[in-house]
Write a structure and sequence with these properties.
CATH architecture of one domain: 3-Layer(aba) Sandwich
Strand order of the largest sheet: 8-7-6-9-10-12
Order of helices and strands: HEHEEEEEHHEEHHEHEHHHEHEHEEEE
CATH topology of one domain: Rossmann fold
Shape: globular
Helix content: 25-40%
Strand content: 15-25%
CATH superfamily of one domain: von Willebrand factor, type A domain
Number of strands: 16
Largest sheet: 6 strands, mixed
Radius of gyration: 21 Å
CATH class of one domain: Alpha Beta
Length: 383
């Protein structure tokens, strides 16, 4: 445990074609067989029109932007003063009314996939308890734990006791074959919405970047997370089952003889497998994708859902293909959470509906700045 604390302290101190794949709702992705529900879970009541109006107003009383600043070597910078930061909402600079670095108290929901799809990696996931409590939870956080497969269950309500959180993670039980990822994330966001505004709100997800059977959509979940100032950190588990369910390679090698590359490459560039794959899989404009998703409230099939969720909220996505990489990734998530700046501002009372772009700059040369891209306010309901 002392070694983990030392390692964490050292880590902190060192420091669109794709749109053709969108589908209108995740119900079309429902798995075969029934979706099991928790008989003890109380159903959530839908908001009335008036409640929805009030909720939107409350949610934009303050906008919080998590900000990570790194130098040219990729090391996190912890010495940037408040006066060096500038934050813009739709191009208009805002007054920074809240400024913090890492040490503020956190409300964290850990959502863990317990589906049988991740059985080969499940023991390694259960072994992350001590790392999670030491580096992510640390000394200033309250944590709740959610497990999800065909169902979404709250395994532990918010507590500041690290031993109880470690025990929950260590004693996770393997479930059924469903992966209701979006429902689990929505449940976590709903729990975080109820925490005090002074708390930084973090959702950590460990699981495959796949969803089957959720009633929530990715777009709806992202919209809600942005309005609730929730930052999503995610650890994608790359399993054999996930690879089998992934999109096939779009390059049809039968179009040419063995050893040739049937897709044309840019003039003057060699036909290599890497360049061929790049031509067949053009880079995804994640920011444009995020804006589209939160405006429409729909799903996207194909792009990595966990990576999208993290980019949409200013968090970080990591991928683990081997057991040993899981603990390292959890430790890295914890290191960034506790070395991240938090900037808060209050939009005008008459803030317009629509998508609001957030941009943060720092008065220091040669640095990179990462934050949430913005938030979306839907038009008010018709009377």
């Amino acid at each position: 445990m002392a070694r983990l604390k030392t390692a964490r302290a050292a880590a902190i101190l060192a420091g669109f074609p794709a749109l053709l794949l969108f589908t209108p709702a995740s119900r079309a992705q429902a798995p075969p067989g029934p979706i099991h529900t928790n008989p003890n879970a109380a159903p959530e009541k839908p908001l009335t029109v008036e409640e929805a109006k009030r909720t939107i107003r409350v949610r934009v009383n303050e906008v919080t932007a998590p900000v990570t600043v790194r130098n040219a070597n990729g090391e996190m910078l912890l010495d940037v003063p408040k006066e060096s930061f500038h934050i813009f909402d739709n191009g208009v600079e805002q007054k920074i009314e809240h400024f913090d670095l890492g040490a503020s108290s956190l409300s964290i929901v850990l959502a863990v996939e317990t589906s049988s799809h991740i059985e080969p990696m499940f023991p390694a996931v259960k072994d992350t308890g001590i790392v999670f409590t030491e580096t992510v939870m640390a000394q200033t956080s309250e944590v709740a734990v959610i497990g999800y497969d065909d169902d979404v269950s709250v395994l532990k309500k918010f507590t500041t006791d690290p031993d109880s959180i470690e025990a929950v993670i260590r004693n996770l039980k393997m479930g059924t074959s469903g992966t209701r990822l979006y429902d689990a994330m929505s449940r976590g966001i709903a729990m975080l919405e109820k925490r005090p505004e002074a708390q930084r709100r973090i959702l950590v997800v460990i699981g495959e970047a796949q969803d089957t059977g959720s009633e929530s959509t990715l777009g709806e979940m992202l919209r809600r997370a942005q309005l609730a100032n929730v930052t999503i950190y995610s650890l994608g588990l790359s399993t054999a089952m996930a690879d089998l369910r992934a999109k096939p390679d779009p390059v049809d090698h039968s179009l040419g003889p063995p050893g040739t590359y049937p897709l044309p490459t840019p003039n003057g560039q060699p036909q290599t497998p890497g360049l061929e794959h790049q031509v067949a899989n053009p880079p995804i404009d994640y920011m444009a994708l995020v804006v589209w998703l939160v405006k429409t409230g729909r799903n996207a099939v194909g792009p990595n859902s966990l990576a999208i969720a993290s980019k949409a909220t200013g968090g970080m996505f990591l991928n683990a293909k081997r057991d040993k990489a899981i603990q390292k990734a959890v430790d890295e998530i914890g290191g960034e959470i506790h070395a991240q700046y938090s900037l808060g501002y209050r939009p005008p009372a008459d803030v317009a509906s629509g998508y609001h772009e957030i941009k943060v700059t720092v008065d220091r040369p040669g640095v990179t700045v990462r934050t949430r891209p913005g938030y979306y306010l839907p038009p008010p309901p018709a009377d």
